[in-house]
Model the fold of this input.
Amino acid sequence: MGVRRPLAAVLAAVAGFASPLVPLTVAASPAHAAPAGNRDVIVHLFQWRWESVAEECESTLGPNGFGAVQVSPPQEHVVLAGEGYPWWQDYQPVSYALDQTRRGTRAEFVDMVDTCREAGVKIYVDAVVNHMSGTGSVGSGPGSAGSTYSKYDYPGLYQSQDFNDCRRDIADWNDKWEVQHCELVGLSDLRTSSDHVRDRIADYLNELVGIGVAGFRIDAAKHIPEADVQAILSRLDDVHPDWGGGRPYVFQEVIADGTIGTGSYTPMGDVTEFQYHRDISHAFADGSIAHLTGLGGGLTPGDKAVVFVANHDTQRNDPILTHADGARYDLAQKFMLAHPYGTPKVMSSYTWSGDPRTGPPMDADGTTRPTDCSADRWVCEHRAVAGMVSFHNAVAGQGIGPSVTDGSGRLAFARGSAGYAAFNATSSAWTRTFTTGLPDGTYCDVANGTFVDGVCDAPTYQVSGGRFTATVPADGAVALHVEALTECTDPDGCGPGQPSAGDDCSAVAARFDATVTTWYGQEVRVVGSIPELGSWNPANGLRLSTDAAAYPVWTGQTALPEGVPFEYKYVKVNPDDTVEWEHGGNRWATADGGPDCSQTFTDSWRE
Ligand code: LAG
Ligand code: CA
Done:
């Protein structure tokens, strides 16, 4: 077809198009493509402002395939000016109002959830529901949103009868009843056996689900009787349809001990596996990693375990390996992302000197400052491991294949024929040839950079005959996987959606046929990850056209490189140049010209 008449002229001829312009919702443009596939990796953006989380979703988390952000608690909290606004204010709720925390307003929170959803990233809320505030550091408030309160009285929410009767600290940690009914570090312990309390907690969590929150970390879950956790979770609504509906994802903070194990909480959801944290951290701290193919053996079943190298408590109270350890710690987080056991939770920290109570970078009134990864005390160590998230996603479902070691500090292993990773927890480089099940081609080393929109910003390695030779840096890694190929040289191809070998077309004559209902004056374009489709800039996208006979099918043609995977979406462009993106994730394709070097993409606008 290829009709290129002035649009107004074309559309004026179409019956029903004389209607006035209707204002459109302008959805945020995906600055980058969101990788498809399995996305379950969680990053804890500890203490980040909502607006900073939103920016990170767009710039880094979505493009690299992170699945979710654990955000710090969003409910109203105590404000402890006298103690210099410590980070742990958040863990003392004053009400379930989302109006104002040190990290921002309710509107900013909502905007974050929406922005992250557009980027394909879920928000998991740290739900502090075992307790309210403590004595000592608090008086009557007001809390961060202005509420007054006292330890056992939160007007309009909880009164004295809503707290357990054991109004003292947990003393005997071998007594399960005490652990669950007395006070954790002096925090007033909610009577979670009561319907009133269960309903209030469920109201709070359902408000978040209504905003689009997709999951929860249940803080101090071990201190809430199992039946009470069950009763609260059973009251929750299903998550937003954009996430496929279904139950919210839940992981429970259970620091297992001889009295309470993770097993009593797995019926309700996932659990934190602290033994994994200790095992991986000691192994990397000691440079003794050769045995780690078996990591996770004997622990909570991997499909129920959330795993981490450090969390916000361990990095302060019981540090084994943390951001302060630099490359070796990054290496451990990379290993976690390469290894099949558990759902990985990557830590993102800020530094403090001396006093571990120190809050995040903040203004004089205790309001948290926006994150600038190159300033203040933000570490942003999740960025150093971002490429490994793509490895984790690409090898999902593949077991550990053949492994090699060299002394106790070096270990390399395959993940089926989808990936291969080598880790060197020693102070000298490790050069050797590795035998993999990977198809032949050029691979982006995602342990040392990222692979986004087909662009590799890391060293590349040539796999030939399934083998590659690498020098794994001291305290470093090399990781290759089949979704980060820059060129495929394997005669059998490199898998669906990947560059294919033996490209026989110099270019593919590509045609897009899209069924799109438009208003008079609107234009339709194809915008995508490759320059031919505007590199995600709608202004440079491929313009489609239609006419009275063809409408609502819009058509356009361009030449595309064969065998290069790309992503795209359709957009409607209004006369004032505002842009409406179609909904849903990015579309994926690889031009494959076939014998006549042409290809047609037939699509329908996704509402
Ligand atoms: C958690 N998981 O079960 C959190 O991961 C952990 O960070 C929380 O403790 C704890 N449970 C309660 O939600 C943090 C700090 C504590 C702090 C507490 C409440 O690690 O140090 O306690 O939050 O803000 C602070 C003081 C205590 C005092 C208490 C009550 O440090 O000395 O007794 O407040 O006033
Ligand atoms: Ca309790």
Remarks:
- The longest helix spans residues 195-211.
- The pocket of LAG (ligand 1) is lined by residues 88, 91-92, 128, 134, 136-137, 184-187, 219-220, 253, 313 (CB under 6 Å).
- The first strand starts at residue 42 and ends at 45.
